[in-house]
Write a structure and sequence with these properties.
The protein is of the alpha+beta class and 195 residues long. The protein has 6 helices and 10 strands. It folds into 2 domains: 80 residues; 111 residues, ATP-grasp fold, B domain (D-amino Acid Aminotransferase, Chain A, domain 1).
Length: 195
């Protein structure tokens, strides 16, 4: 499953996911918000694709138009409101265990800069911690693990064949145009793939 299928899968699963929409030439993005622009391809390498994060609407539209022109019929451009990540990580669901890696703030701290605050390996209600055991509160951990049964149900065939389902998540806040946090913290998933 590639990034594009993962976007659609997240929508279908009923997990708390980013409210993404496909970008078209007729979009007008709200000036009072910041935006994230991403793309996904139908085939080929879908890692490290161009993206714009936390941009004002004029810059976001310009970037999205250019990206849409460059990607052509080989994929889609999506957009969604920018959020401020407080904690982020990956949730890797196997048939017999769950592995959570978490880092302070943006996921790129983990996937790009190899920073990690904690890794938690969960097997049969036994948790092994590597790193800061208190980084994720018990409530945060429960919020993430709440979705494991649905993930296992959706990817049952892949898990049975020895693959795992990896999802990217953040505990986040909405924000205003000046990147000030707005509202309560919430859990959001924004990518899913089979590995």
């Amino acid at each position: 499953m590639n990034k594009l299928m993962g976007f659609y899968e997240l929508k279908a699963m009923g997990l708390p996911a980013v409210d993404w929409k496909e970008y078209s030439d007729e979009e007008s993005l709200d000036f009072s918000m910041l935006w994230t622009i991403r793309c996904a391809v139908h085939k080929g390498n879908d890692l490290n694709l161009p993206r714009l994060v936390g941009a004002e609407s004029v810059e976001a539209v310009k970037f999205a138009d250019s990206l849409k022109k460059n990607i052509g019929d080989n994929g889609i451009v999506i957009f969604y409101p920018y959020f401020i990540a407080v904690k982020s990580g990956t949730l890797n669901v196997f048939s017999d265990k769950v592995v959570i890696e978490a880092v302070k703030e943006d996921l790129w701290n983990l996937v790009t800069f190899s920073k990690r605050d904690v890794t938690i390996i969960i097997r049969d209600q036994n948790n092994e911690y590597y790193g800061n055991e208190e980084f994720l509160s018990e409530e945060e951990l429960k919020k993430i693990l709440k979705y494991v049964p649905e993930i296992r149900r959706c990817f049952k065939d892949e898990l049975t064949c020895g693959f795992s389902a990896m999802l990217e998540w953040s505990f986040a806040h909405n924000c205003d145009i000046h990147k000030n946090k707005v509202g309560e913290q919430y859990l959001v998933f924004y990518e899913a793939r089979i590995v």
